[in-house]
Structures are given as C-alpha cells and as structure tokens.
Write a structure and sequence with these properties.
The structure holds 2 protein chains of 2 kinds. Chain A has helices at 2-21, 25-29, 59-63, and strands at residues 91-98, 106-108, 114-117, 124-130, 133-140, 148-152, 155-159, 164-167, 181-184, 198-200, 206-210, 225-229, 237-241, 249-251, 258-262, 274-280, 285-286, 292-293, 297-298, 316-320, 324-329, 343-347, 360-366, 372-379, 383-384, 387-388, 392-397, 403-407, 412-418. Chain A is mostly beta strands. Helix content of chain B is 55%, strand content 0%. In chain B, helix 2 (30-41) crosses helix 5 (89-100) and helix 3 crosses helix 5 (89-100). The chains are: A mainly beta, B mainly alpha.
Chain lengths: 426, 196
C-alpha cells in the first residue's frame, strides 16, 4: 500500500546511480580482510559473577538466568499451545483471538469489545465480536510501551511510559479513532520498570503504578508506588508505597479494597524473594520495598537498620521470580462455587531462575475477612522442558462468566469456560 | 569522524541498497535481499564501515528482533527503516537465518591492553555481562554476539542505551548501563573488539 509506494518512488530516483555503483560495492567493503594475525590471549570470562564466590555460577548455569524477550511475531493459530494446556476437570480452553504479537493487558467493555495492549511493541488493538466472527483492528500505534489500559464510561485510557492518554467514545469510532487527549504526564522516563498498569477504582479515580527504576535501589522520589488521580489528571497522590513494580491490581467486589501483585527483586537467589499479593486497607501504607521482601526478611544491602514489622505484609506469597502480573476477582457465575469470590492471577513466569516457574494462571481463594485461604494452579502447561510455549499476562472475566487470558509470548488471547462445550458466541 | 570519501561511498551504497530492496510484488531470493545489506555490513560477516556493525554469527532470533524493530520503526535508524519497509515477516525470518550463518567477525588485530582487559573482567563480574551474552561473548537467542564486534560500534550502541536514543526491545540493557560511564564503555569496546 502506501508503504510500498514510498519505496517505489525512491527506487525510480536512485536507479541510475545505483546500477552503476552496484558492481563495485561488495568487493570494496571487503578490502580490509585478512592477514592471519597473532592470536590475542584472553581468558574467557565464564566464572562467577557473584562477589567472593569464584565457583558459581558456571557458564551453563549463568546462561539460563538471562531474560527472555517476547517474540515480535505472533505464533500462527495452528501452532498455539492449546494441546499442551492443562485445566481442572470440566474446564476447557479455546483460542479467542490470535495474531496479536505481544498481547498484554486485556480490557472488555459492556458491549463486548476487547482492547489489547503491547509492552515491547507500540500498538493497542480492539477485537470486535460480531456473532462469533471476530475482527481485530489497530486503534493506536507508535505508542511508547502502551501496557496500561482502562475503560470507563465509554472512554479508553491508555498508559504509556510517560503519560496517560484517553480516547473518548472509542467504540463508536474504532475505524477512525479520534485524536487522543493527554490526561496526565507527570511520570518519570525510565527504561527500568518504565511501563505502566492502570485501573479505575470504585471511587472513580484512576490508579497507576510507578515502578522502582531499578532492580534494587533507594527509589527516586515518586517511584516505587501506586498513585491515584482524578480522571482529568488532577489531584495525583501516592496511594500505596514501597511497591517495587505492580503490573496487576483489582478491587474486592464487596469491601472495595485494592489488591495488587508486586514483583520481587532479582539476583538474590533462586528461591527468594517470592512475588507478593498485597491488600491496601488504608491509603499511604508501605509494602516494604526496598527494605523488606515478602514481608519476612530484610534486604541484604538496603535492609540494615530496618525491620519487616515496619511494613504491611503480603496476604500471599506467589513464588520466587514468578512474575505475578494481571489479576481479577472472579465475579462470574459460570465456574463452580469453589472459584467464586477469589482472584485469578496470571504469573508470567521467571527469568532470573535456572529452573523456571510460573507461566500459568493460579486461583487465590479468599476467606470472609479478605485474607487468602489458598493459592492453587488453574491453567498450566505453558512451561515445557524448562522453556516457554506461552506466557500469561492478564485475565478478564467475560459477561457469561468465562475467563479470558492473554499471552504475550504466543500473541493470543484464550477463553476458558466450564461445563458443556459452547463457545462465546458461536 | 568518517572520512568524506567513506561518507560518500556509504551514501551511494545506501542508494544502491534502497533500489535493490525496493522490488515489491516480485519474489526475491534471500541472497538478492541480502546483497545490499552485506555491502555495508560485510559479505563475510565483518564490517569495514565505520559505526556499521559486523553481523556474522549473530543469533538468528536477535537478528529477527532487530529487523522487525527497524521495519516497525521501533528503532528509527536510516537507512535501515527505509530498507525494511514492507518486508514480510517470513522474509525477515529468512534474512535473519541467512545472516546468522555468516562467519563470525574477525577480531581487531591491534594489541589488547592487559590492563584494560583486567579492568573489563572486573566490570563483567560486577555487571554479569557474561550471563546473557555467554562466557565467550557469542550471544544467545535474543542476546547479541559481542566478540569481535567493531570497537566504534560497541561504543555507539552502549551510548545509545545510556542516553535512551536506542531503546532496547526490552529493558534489560537500560538497567545494565545505568551506572556505567563513558570511559567504561570505551574499556568494554576495546576488549570485546579484540576477542574472537
């Protein structure tokens, strides 16, 4: 289309020059090649990177600790990991939509539009369901890490790295979205934990995470917190402190308290600390970062002179390096009683650990007082031979009570339903 | 920095490259597609062009991600963005796989300073470069090979990560370079350019 045309135009203009030059260029580029020089002695540095321990880890172990980048190209429909997925008896999984590379946050509207965001790519999509036929439209591109999405009274809010923008009446204009309006831009421009997660609370305010700009550090003023502000961008105030990086939160449907996931620090050990599920019972509570991890031990560098008793403890530990991200209270009626009133949590899965864990959706059952009774695996199978074939990021409850799960590794959204096979709309 | 003759040569190469890539609707072989790329990056995997990286033996997945980022303008660097406009996913994949098979670049044969090498080993231990880039700096998966890369390109890339003009595909390098200085970038580049 227009892409091609631009290239073609360039081609016409340059054709003459190029045809003359082409013959000489490849060899010219190779002129510098060769005399067999002396080998420069160097020790390949593959021993320890841990101070004081020259023996660990060895190169093979170290390799397994690297971060794994989400593929920029989605897995084709026929190769999605449906056959490997495991669910409790009576549940079934299907592909809701495929072909959305780096599918991250998902938000459903009352009308049934599904918005899907990116983190390492630049787009936000709308998936429209018309009688079971789904159509995917790009509604915004060229955005800066547009991970955060919220939908409220017809308006879509998108949180990029350094600003929140909104599209009003977006569902009436999916084919030609209006110009976005900037709502808020008082956000630090950091690469580290510089993507955002947002939600709109029962108080009608917009909540946003501002992660710590590091693995472990004394955080810059205004970071390592969940902030809240009015929908017009005014009145910003810290809501929860000592939050390393939260990429998922939701409000208890009955008591309206904010629950959030928080990712623990890296490079401490294989098994510590665990990621956290936290509950905010009052504004301004501090959840420990960088001084206390998982509510029960102080950091080996930052924790001197501190005690974990100074901070609010997590309501659940979610596994070391498990990267607990999106979470939703289950408010539907399709699933059996034991899945009602608790929280589905997507665990994206570990990188800073030799034996990977997570890459699943777990269910946290709650007691009446809002404390966590148990955390159990729900959707698994994305981890095969210590490699990912999918990585859940976010969950969303559909009107019929089924559960949508996004996967930024395969670039797809799955639908989990219970009972006799019947699909969303077909 | 770049001698004017080189600059002109590079300009013409880019012109040639754009022409050769711009043949929509016509199936090109991978070799045809790669010819203009290798004119600058080096047919044998070793670049002789200032600040143009050597691509030999880079991991295919790393290459695919970079090609994709250029096409999508997530890395906005001319002439790469123009050259990759409209190239299909499958062609990006084929190009990445073919480039990965080029021989590893030839290391800079000027002497490695032992003092600087010692300093780099200390920095590596501190910042765990070898965890992701491998003990021999050959890279893996989404992580690039560094061994034998051009010294000037390594400095350029590290500076780009530091001042955020090169936003990584994910945020890993930004975390790593945050506490590093320009003088330390020069040490890394000196060392890595001289190992095979």
């Amino acid at each position: 289309m227009s892409k091609h045309r631009r290239v073609c135009d360039g081609r016409i203009g340059l054709a003459v020059v190029a045809s003359v030059l082409w013959a000489v260029t490849p060899s010219a580029a190779q002129d510098g090649a060769k005399p067999a020089g002396k080998q420069i002695p160097h020790e390949i540095h593959q021993k320890s990177s841990v101070p004081g321990r020259a023996d660990i880890p060895n190169a093979e172990v170290a390799k397994q600790l690297r971060g794994i980048a989400p593929p920029p190209i989605a897995t084709p429909l026929e190769k999605l990991p449906l056959p490997q997925m495991r669910l409790p008896n009576g549940f079934r999984a299907e592909v809701y939509v495929s072909g959305i590379a780096n599918a991250r946050t998902i938000r459903l509207t009352e009308r049934g539009t599904l918005f899907v965001s990116n983190r390492v790519l630049d787009k936000v999509y709308a998936v429209v369901d018309r009688n079971g036929k789904r159509e995917t439209k790009v509604i915004a591109s060229g955005l800066d890490r547009p991970n955060g999405l919220a939908f409220h009274n017809g308006t879509l809010y998108i949180a990029e790295g350094t600003r929140i923008i909104k599209f009003e009446k977006i569902e009436d204009n999916l084919d030609k979205p209006p110009q976005p309006v900037v709502v808020y831009s008082d956000l630090p421009n950091t690469s580290s934990h510089g993507w955002r997660y947002i939600g709109i609370g029962p108080d009608g305010k917009l909540y946003i995470n501002v992660g710590a700009p590091c693995n472990i550090c004394e955080p810059l003023q205004g970071t390592a917190q969940i902030r809240r502000l009015n929908l017009d961008g005014t009145g910003a105030e810290p809501f929860a402190l000592g939050v390393r990086n939260s990429v998922g939160f939701d409000w208890h449907p009955a008591n309206k308290q904010l629950y959030f996931t928080d990712n623990g620090r890296d490079w401490l050990s294989e098994d510590l600390p665990e990621d956290e599920l936290n509950r905010v019972t009052a504004r301004g509570q501090h959840f420990g970062f960088p001084y206390c991890h998982q509510g029960d031990f102080t950091d080996r560098e930052m924790g001197w002179g501190r005690s974990c008793d100074e901070f609010v403890k997590p309501v659940a530990k979610l596994g070391p390096h498990s990267a607990a991200l999106g979470m939703r209270f289950y408010t539907g009626r399709m699933f059996p009683q034991q899945y009602r009133g608790g929280i589905f949590i997507a665990r994206h899965g570990s990188w800073n650990r030799t034996k990977k864990i997570g890459g699943d959706v777990v269910y946290a059952a709650l007691n009446r007082d809002g404390s966590v009774r148990s955390v159990k695996p729900f959707l698994t199978g994305f981890l095969q031979n210590n490699d990912w074939i999918g990585r859940p990021v976010d969950v969303e409850v559909m009107r019929d009570g089924s559960l949508l799960v996004s996967d930024d590794f395969a670039g797809a959204v799955y639908r989990i339903s219970y009972g006799a096979p019947r699909t969303a709309s077909r | 920095m770049i001698a004017s003759g080189t600059r002109i040569k590079r300009g013409l190469l880019i012109a040639a490259a754009l022409v050769l890539l711009a043949t929509p609707g016509m199936t090109q072989s991978v070799a045809e597609r790669l010819a203009p790329c290798l004119a600058c990056h080096g047919e044998n995997g070793t670049s002789t062009m200032p600040e143009v990286p050597s691509l030999g033996a880079q991991p295919a997945y790393f290459l695919l991600i970079q090609l994709f980022m250029f096409r999508e303008r997530l890395r906005n660097v001319e002439p790469m963005t123009s050259m990759l406009k409209g190239v299909s996913d499958d062609d990006l994949r084929r190009m990445a796989e073919a480039i990965a098979k080029l021989p590893a670049p030839k290391a800079d044969e000027t002497p490695l300073s032992p003092d600087r090498a010692t300093r780099v080993r200390e920095l590596v231990a501190q910042h765990r470069c070898n965890f992701c880039h491998s003990g021999d700096y050959s890279g893996q998966e989404n992580v690039p090979r560094l061994a034998g890369q051009r010294e000037d390109y390594l400095i350029k890339a590290l500076r780009g990560y530091k001042d955020n003009t090169r936003r990584g595909y994910d945020a890993q390098m930004a975390d790593v370079v945050e506490p590093l200085t320009d003088a330390e970038f020069a040490e890394f580049a000196h060392y890595l350019a001289r190992i095979n």
